[in-house]
Amino acid sequence: MRVLGVRAAGRALSLAAAAVLLTGTLTGCGGPASAEGAGGSGDSLSSVTLRVGATGWKREEALLKFAGLDDTPYQVRWSLFQGGDKQLEAVRAGALDVAESSEIPPVFAAADGRPNFKVVAVQRGNTLNQEVVAPKGSKITTIAQLKGKKVGYVKNTTAHYFLYRLLKQAGLQWDDITAAPLEPDKGMAALNGGAVDAFAGYGNSVIAAHQQGARTIGSARDILSGNFLWTASDGTLGSAAARRALADLLARIDRAYAYVRDGREKEFAKVTAAATHQPVDEALAEFRSAEAQRRTEMRPVSARATASQQEVADSFHDLGALRRTPKVSGFWSNALNSPLRKALSS
């Protein structure tokens, strides 16, 4: 099975972004992050409103509230999406200022060669709950057994990437399976209803799958880099006040994780459990396992992180998902490096 080429992907991106705007699923309206309040000079943080995306649940917003770090001198409007790919579509459409995602969505969002955004920070994090699962009662126990089977996956995300890599490790090609692109909720429904033999997903969808008896047949734990990218629109980066606000926000998120790790894991697990509908002990175990695998930390952009995303882009080109391999350094920027380092050290 071949997936969308660059032109088709561009058309789909435009349609999806328009749909986001028309359905009104985003909080806030207007143009890019504004640094021009009523009568403001354009340099005051109080005049800035950042429209920021979140995936699965508004984890960062909850973290900041839990740590008492949500008293920002600027406004933050959080919007919830099913994946980082949808966030990047919203940034492209001017409906979001800041997106958080894995390394994959920006690659596809830039596929038309005209990205209006830049990767400005890297958050190191865990690669757990990124799995291929088979439903309860299935006889499939390995990736190799997926040959000739129908496999759901979330297109243009980590799930797309690690499914491809796991198939290669098992000696299979993408065309050896019937690949079915599905959103996380529809993928879960298809898995439970028998419409697919396995599903490659992440986050809450994997948690929910295990709650319903699904078995892990492949993990991305050692495949994914652990680099999660923070991307800002060019309009946002064009405002000095918005850049300062964003650097401050990312540093606050970094401090909030440190606050939880400092003996408050169980209390935050209660917050997580309420949002993800899982037992507190399970949420606590997941947080501790995640931080044990790789501590969550915010970092400025670097040549090493840029090279890591280039490897991902090259893989998608080999898969046939991209007609040409983009040069990812073209949509990375060090514009936030200095203010972010300052904010992280304060």
UniProtKB/TrEMBL annotation:
InterPro entries: Solute-binding_3/MltF_N, SsuA/THI5. Residues 49-271 form the Solute-binding protein family 3/N-terminal domain. Pfam families: NMT1 (PF09084). Transmembrane segments: none annotated. The keyword Metal-binding does not apply. It comes from the Bacteria. Keywords: Signal. Residues 1-28 form the signal peptide. SUPFAM superfamilies: Periplasmic binding protein-like II. The keyword Signal applies. Belongs to the bacterial solute-binding protein SsuA/TauA family. This is ABC transporter substrate-binding protein.
